[in-house]
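From the pipeline queue, job 12 of 40. The input is one protein chain; the requested action is below.

Action: predict structure.
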Amino acid sequence: MINRLKPKSEFSRNVLTLMTGTTIAQAIPIAISPILTRLYSPSEFGIFALYMSIASLLSVIATGRYELAIMLPKKKTDALNIVILSLVITITISIFAFLIVFFFNEEITILLENKNISNWLYFIPITVLFTGIYQSFNYWNSKQKQYKLIATTKVIQSTTTGTSNLSFGFAGYTFGGMILGGLFGQAISSFMLSRNFFKNDKNLFQKISKTRIIALAKKYKKFPLINSLHAFINILKENAVNIFIGIKYSQTTLGYYFFMLRMMKLPAGLLGSSIAQVFYREATERYIKDKNIQSLILKLVIKLVLISLGPIFLFYFIAEELFSIIFGEEWRIAGSYAKAISPYIFFHFIASPLGMIPLVVNMQEKAFFWGFFESVLFMSVFGYGYFIYGDLLVSIYILSLIMGLYFIIYFSWIYKIGKGNG
């Protein structure tokens, strides 16, 4: 009985540690947002959104998704070799991205119908590189239970990014200021996690083996072959929509939408990312032992519903006024978008940590098809809303309805596979 209580206590402590760091890290951009919206125009948020959309599509596959496999081996040396594998893939993809931008900059600019993005395309490979480095060392430190370091790194990254954004804004360098600020934050956080790796685990470097790396790459080949495609399709839906809005509506409209979604997801990510990271580890250990984690899934879902239902319900009625008061009257339209999308955020918040379950029970193939279907629904709604109604707000309301129904069905599948069969 005592042994069963320990993981719960450890789980709570680890979540609290990560949550504290994440809370501070997420609170910083939220706190400075009323200033940023007065320094940067919706159009400038739009160019930042377009940049991040392209960078995110590449960043999600920067490591071949092998960073998720770092948690799985029992041997520390195997985990180390997977870290090296992830870094090699990251460097390769970053170089490839630079070559694409270098040789096809004009074509990409024309395709996006936005001349303002041209010069900033050259910074995308750097964003991809830092993202891959951060993700690799983040999961390594998570496996070593270095949750305090991870939490501290998140705070420093957010502080650096926020300070840089404000500095560029006050100096008048608003065009691209947020892009450079994000790069500075990524550089600092990547350095911190990698420094700890080279400082504390350098005695393991002699265990790095090309043969072992190749063997592990084959053993966990589902991550690049299936999970990376799944992750790409999953992130494609939001970033493709950003690009679509920028082309079909305007850069300013994209700025409103992007800022709104950012403000909605930051509070949701406050708990979601921390819970998901620790839940992944506990669910893996429980499944290895019992082959049944349905009770764990059910308890998590109940907790997430209780945490989020009240705030989302209240927010629905005050979103427009809240945005106009806090961020300025110019941003009221972003508040109307926030109101419309709040039901979707509620379901997405619950679904995010549960996305780790297919990895735990080795059902990535089926998870891929669920993710593919979700992405098709998500993108189709915006296409339908534009071509039928020509109204982004209507599209967002339809999105909340359709995706709410989807997530209810998805939750039932996740619960079913929690006992090891799909």
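Job complete. The chain has a mean pLDDT of 87.
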